[in-house]
Amino acid sequence: MTTPPTPVNLLDLTPADAEQQLRAFAEARGVGAYRGSQAARRLWSHPAASFAEMTDLPLAFRAELAQAFSVPRLELAAEQRSTDGTRKFLFRLHDGQTIETVAIPDGDRVTLCISSQAGCALQCSFCATGLMGFSRNLLPSEIAGQVRELALLPEPVKPTNIVFMGMGEPMMNWKAVNVVLTILNDAKGCGIGARHITVSTVGVLPGIEALAKRPEQFRLAISVHAPSDELRRMLMPVNIKFPLEKVIDAAANFSRRVTFEYVMLGGVNDQPMHAELLAQLAKRCGAFVNLIPLHPGGAGSYTPTSADGIRRFAAALERAGVEVAVRKSRGTDIAAACGQLRVERLRRRPPVAAD
Ligand code: SAH
User: Which residue's CA is minimally distant from atom 19 of ligand 1?
Assistant: First the structure.
């Protein structure tokens, strides 16, 4: 007996590669290559939940597709809605891992915050995802799949913007993220403009260089969080491997304007001296600074900087000639910061042995 070949997961491929395979398959089955292009449309731009639901295709061809290919779903395990309209989704993957996606409406924009890894290895001291440790990298189909699943809801969520600010460090999973960027941006994929897609990183240098080489205008955000090596090492152990100086140099060499993310930790990184040093760094690479109020329920025992304190810090940056915005805290009532939904659910269960 021979085992049947494993079906090819079409959602792990760029739209062009998937279409090519589908066209060749359709041609070989004698239904005309155009049927392959028709099936390709149903992956991302007009998503269908399964081959069976691609009702614009002949029934027999749909059955043949289902033998040779797969379009796996992510199981929606939980959803929470904030009073401010923010929605948080917890997805369960085929091996039981769980990841989260947050949808943040703002006027006529909808920003999706997507996860790139199950857990995270970086252990930033204030971050809930760091607490749970690293489980594994996500596949392209599991990262872009988060966007696809929301498009498949009875009331589809259609994002205008995507940020890689969910669980995980996208630049530690560049191979998959590289494919996902194409899927999200491609007119035959999700069709989201590159300038509306932001990759956020702690400063993994090879990843920044790889993103810089892409011809599209994808945006780069760097989690700075401290303006000196000494303090940054304490908050972000990754600073030992990728020190601030080198990260700032990489930001300066990046072909497009970079955003600095800076989480405001009361009494830790929010003093006038920090604003002064941060302004120097931002000016060196022409960065825009995004001040992030600390989301309650992260890790560690930090206290958020007061709203007044944040305003003063922002004003100091502005006086130094730096463009700055204070990010609105969204979904605080549903613990929508990095990793918080999963942590909440894990806490309710007995601990699982790490593998
Ligand atoms: N690993 C990437 C992307 C995921 S986190 C990165 O670190 O950039 C997205 C952003 O949320 C990062 O800037 C992270 O530092 C920040 N963050 C994590 N926990 C937070 C919390 N409790 N409050 C506010 N921001 C937080």
Answer: 127
Q: How many CB atoms lie within 10 A of CB 38?
A: 20
Q: Is 190 a catalytic residue?
A: no
| Ligand 1: residue whose CA is nearest its atom 13 | 223
Is 120 a catalytic site residue? no
Nearest protein CA to atom 12 of ligand 1, as residue: 223
Whether the predicted model's global pTM rises above the 0.90 cut: yes
Marked catalytic residue, from 100, 149, 169, 261: 100
What CA–CA distance (Å, rounded) separates 147 from 164?
A: 12
Which DSSP helix (H) or strand (E) runs through 231?
Answer: helix 229-235
Amino acid identity at 248 = I
The tens-digit pLDDT sequence of the chain (355 residues) is: 566 678 999 999 999 999 999 999 999 999 999 999 999 999 999 999 999 999 999 999 999 999 999 999 999 999 999 998 999 999 999 999 999 999 999 999 999 999 999 999 999 999 989 888 999 999 999 999 999 999 999 999 999 999 999 999 999 999 999 999 999 999 999 999 999 999 999 999 999 999 999 999 999 999 999 999 999 999 999 999 999 999 999 999 999 999 999 999 999 999 999 999 999 999 999 999 999 999 887 888 899 999 999 999 999 999 999 999 998 877 777 776 655 556 555 544 433 333 3
Alpha-carbon separation of residue 77 from 96, 100, 139, 194, 341 (angstroms) = 10, 10, 19, 30, 11
User: Domains of the chain, with CATH numbers?
Assistant: 8-70 (1.10.150.530), 75-346 (3.20.20.70)
